[in-house]
Amino acid sequence: MIKEGLILKGIGGFYYVETSDGVFECKAKGKFRKNGISPLAGDKVIITVREDKENTIDEIQPRKNKLVRPPVANIDKLLIVVSVAKPYPNTQIIDKMTLLAEKNGIDRQTAGALFDDMSDFANYAFNKSHAAAYALISYRTAYLKAHYPREYMAALLTSVLDSSEKVSEYINECRNMGLELLPPDVNRSRDCFTVEEKGIRFGLVAIKNIGRAVMENMVREREENGPFTGFQDFCERMYSYDINKRAVENLIRAGAFDCFGVRRSQMVAVHDKLMDSIADSRRQNVEGQLDFFSMASAAPTTKRSVELVLPDIPEYSAEERMRQEREVTGLYLSGHPMDGFRAEAKGRGAVYVGAIHEDFAQEGGATIFRDGQNIMIAGMITAFKTKPTRNQSLMAYATVEDETSAIEMLCFSRALERHHHL
């Protein structure tokens, strides 16, 4: 069982851990210290919670041989000091609390150290109910990731489909876990990411201009009438569901028809005429409609669209296919432009951009990288703009992207002059 209030966490690397004797110790920067409690001859520091109109206030209240016995009015002020909303708003209140502690036999240094830690804790304090809930969620998600990695990552990817950056980050995590991300497929994909025996199948909802109704109709059509047998078969069967040319083109560029063994360049070249041909045949053959001269016939004839003839043209290059995938999904699916350079970049000590962002996003601050540090990254320049400086020279802002994330870099005039040929 998870003990309520076992760990109470605050920003800045502070962890309040309840020991066996009921004392909350403060772990700061990897070291435990008694937080000014040991001179109190066995006093406890109890952390309780009080609800107010704005938010949860985390009240840090010494008990037993009371550290401070303030008047009721000062208690309310102390609660504001250690609240989440207004940490440490008035040092005068802390000074008064310190004086009251001195009157109770606690020296100023010990009392001041305790109140300082209370303020640090108040920057963001998890109360007991939050600590227990987060611990339970952490346990469950860790269990699912360890024992059901494909199902877990498929659900995680589906949950962040509105953020290309997050999807890219989790796709990279799938690769690190040895999970294969399978491309979109009109005969296998659903709206969201799904689990298959070989890996995780890309969801159609991530492809631009593919509405939810089209996806649902696509799944229903193949379940009721069998898998699509080819590109023309797909267009003819899905035409009744009002699929448009843009949707078909984006499915091609995302690789959703690769299962038919036809080049993407061929399908892009003919899809426009094919959709027009299907539209013409449907207009001429409305179901059940007979003209004046065919009324005597045994049954109406149905005119099919012209049989598809694919032009003999070369396939797009790998770089062009990846560019088109990025254009219609926001992601590189069949590979990444940096794949051919990653071994060399790693050999030269280049770090992932995602690792930099992750390190600086930690609650306790960066531990690997620091401001002013010289590092090497390897990536593509995806955006570039210049700006004149005061002395009429040029500086530039460049966005560099690798497999994990993107970062904006500032290029001064000297660097631009040295590397302008790039």
Structure characterization notes:
With 422 residues, the chain is of the alpha+beta class. Helix content is 39%, strand content 14%. It is built from 14 helices and 12 strands. The chain has a 4-stranded antiparallel sheet with strand order 1-2-3-4. A 3-stranded mixed sheet has the order 7-9-8. α5 runs antiparallel to α6, α8 runs parallel beside α10 and α9 runs antiparallel to α10. The radius of gyration is 32 Å and the shape is extended. The N terminus is likely disordered.
Blueprint of the fold:
Layout: E1 7-10, E2 14-18, E3 24-28, E4 31-33, E5 45-51, E6 56-62, H1 72-81, H2 91-103, H3 108-122, H4 128-147, H5 149-159, H6 164-176, E7 181-182, E8 194-195, E9 200-201, H7 212-225, H8 231-238, H9 245-253, H10 264-284, H11 318-329, H12 342-347, H13 353-360, E10 380-388, E11 394-401, E12 406-411, H14 413-418
Parallel strand pairs: 7-9
Antiparallel strand pairs: 1-2, 2-3, 3-4, 5-6, 8-9, 10-11, 11-12
